Amino acid sequence: MPRRSQASPAAPVPFEPTAARAVRAELGLSPAMVARALGDSYALPVPPSLVISWEVGAAHPTERELIALARVLWCLPGRLMGGRAVSLRDHRLALDLPRDEVARRLRITRRDYARMEERWDGDRLQTRELAQVLQLSPRTLIRACDREQRLDELLLRATDGRWQAQVRPVHELIPVLSEEWISHALQALSAERSTSSALWGGPATQPAEEIPQEEPAERFWTLVEPATT
To answer: Which top-rank group of organisms is this from (predicted)?
Structure first.
């Protein structure tokens, strides 16, 4: 009988020990008081020594422990993450949002959202609403949805002079940006590339593989920055 493949374990939740220690100190709480509150309010058998271990980086809280710790410290989990949120799960936890709540706001089932949180494949409207619910900037949205490589590919095509054909695909990836801003950025990328090639006496375009992938992306985000602030 074939064995069922097991899902890979989830990555640890981001955690910044110094942030946790600073917030606790601001509230005038001791590690023992925090441990007692975790046990009394959230049924977590956490000894004071474990709280101290979290704060010095010798141990890492679980997802449940992080949420409970943030509530005990009267702050959002994101403050204890130290700006290290990367995945959609991280950004959801940073706001102390359960999957049920995000699914409700996106008007999908909890099961569907749990799957999509692992590998986002939502349509344009769902992606726009996701960014609103999780308070994601356009660039953070691309990173959290693991769409950076696809964006790089489209931007490379735009620098080859085919920028008009990339407007809609880029908008599908980043629906929180208007097509007008995307058109402006892609046209500028294409024009700058053509100018650069002409100055060096080369052809108007070059094969995509000869163009550094990171440069078009960085330039793109600079060009659309006014639309993201």
So the answer is: Bacteria
